[in-house]
Amino acid sequence: MTSFELMPKRENLRRDKFLLGLVLFCVACAITIIIPDLPTEVLDSPEQNYFRSLRSEGDDVDSKRAIALISFGEAAAKSTLAERAVLSIRRRGEFDGKVVLITDAPEERYDGVFDENVIVMQSKDEDMKIGYFYDEAMKYKRYKTLIPQYFDSEPDLDEIEHIYYMDIDMMMGAPFQSLVNGLDEKYGTESIPSDGNDKIFMFSDPLSATYVVNSGFIALDREKSRRCLESWRKEMDANPGFPKDQLSLNEVFEKSGEDENYGCEIVPMEHENYLRYTVNESFMLNMMDEEVYPNLIHIYNSCKAEKFSETSTELFVSDVLMLSEEEKAKHGYGKAVITPSKTDWESTQRRLPELAVEEEDDGHEDLTYFGA
């Protein structure tokens, strides 16, 4: 066969290769367009990829701020509280920055669960003071005062200047940035003078006349809040019978007011529309009907949670987290977590009658925070 006879076949081969390449290119383009719209579960089943998908690629990651969470105890480890908190931070909170979870759970509990911007840190046993406090929950709450030290031990957190702590039974209902901006503008949470007292910022406690502030949310400056945290920790350790960390905060608040050289100032903040408590079931459902959530929502998981039906709680939490039906079925984040149990309220009163909470107008004792 001559070279002239081979030319048509060569041309056909070139044409076929070109058409095949064109088809593959079109298929690749179609996949690129379609895949982002597919449910995450179809693409990747691991939890880590699920949480990674919540973060918007290309967005500027906040490198100066971080959110801190603590999760302690067997009941918390068995629940999805930590996942729920992170999900709310990423979704409604629209925060892509560092989230730090300090926990005593086994390492495998959260291994591969979150995206790469969530750092899980194992607690140190020496920080817990096991068997020291009358109320066992206090050994966990002590870690709130050690957050900057844990940050210091992680090089990936070296750039962080401002830390925002929130209890894991809280959820974010609105953009984190609006919370940061509002609090700094009114209270100076991110502008503490370098030559003045250290400060910590907490919301006032609307449900108790006993406590000046509630420690469920704390705005911290990495350097200019340490003396306050140290003073708070010293009061905890000096009063092992205190059943709530707010009582130790009361001591710090009083002493700082009496001594101008105390070096610490606790700044109470008003709730406004930054924080709401699910004080009862109807209030919780009314909040959902408004379709506009505050920055922070506190969900009861014990004591008063017994008054809420699981159906209402699941409906509310699912709406805040914007869960799809697949997410509800697969992850269970909308379900009520940590089965409510009786507290050691009676034994605490027997040991420390002076700490008994005053009766409410309806004649029932206010058990709002004990065991929460």
Give a short summary of the structure.
By secondary structure, this protein is of the alpha/beta class. 38% of the residues lie in helices and 15% in strands.
List the helices and strands and how they pair.
Elements: H1 3-34, H2 40-43, H3 47-52, E1 65-71, H4 74-78, H5 81-90, E2 98-103, E3 118-122, H6 138-141, H7 147-152, E4 162-166, E5 170-172, H8 176-187, E6 198-204, E7 213-221, H9 226-238, H10 245-258, E8 264-269, E9 275-277, H11 281-290, E10 296-298, H12 310-320, H13 325-331, H14 345-351
Parallel strand pairs: 1-2, 1-4, 2-3, 6-8, 9-10
Antiparallel strand pairs: 4-7, 5-10, 6-7
Describe this structure as you would to a colleague:
The protein is of the alpha/beta class and 372 residues long. Helices cover 38% and strands 15% of the residues. The chain has helices spanning 3-34, 40-43, 47-52, 74-78, 81-90, 138-141, 147-152, 176-187, 226-238, 245-258, 281-290, 310-320, 325-331, 345-351, and strands at 65-71, 98-103, 118-122, 162-166, 170-172, 198-204, 213-221, 264-269, 275-277, 296-298. Strand 9 (275-277), helix 11 and strand 10 (296-298) form a beta-alpha-beta unit. Helix 9 crosses helix 10 and helix 11 packs parallel to helix 12. The chain is globular and about 55 Å long. It starts with a helix and ends in a 21-residue tail after the last helix.
Beta-strand level of the residues, as a percent range?
Answer: 5-15%
Oligomer category: single chain
Main β sheet profile: 7 strands, mixed
Mean pLDDT reading: 78
Strand order of the largest sheet: 3-2-1-4-7-6-8
Secondary structure category: alpha/beta
User: Approximately how much helix is present in the residues?
Assistant: 25-40%
Order of helices and strands: HHHEHHEEHHEEHEEHHEEHEHHH
Low-confidence stretches: 1-10, 30-47, 338-372
Shape: globular
Distance between the termini: 90 Å
* Strand segment tally: 10
Number of helices: 14
Q: Roughly how many Å is the radius of gyration? A: 26 Å
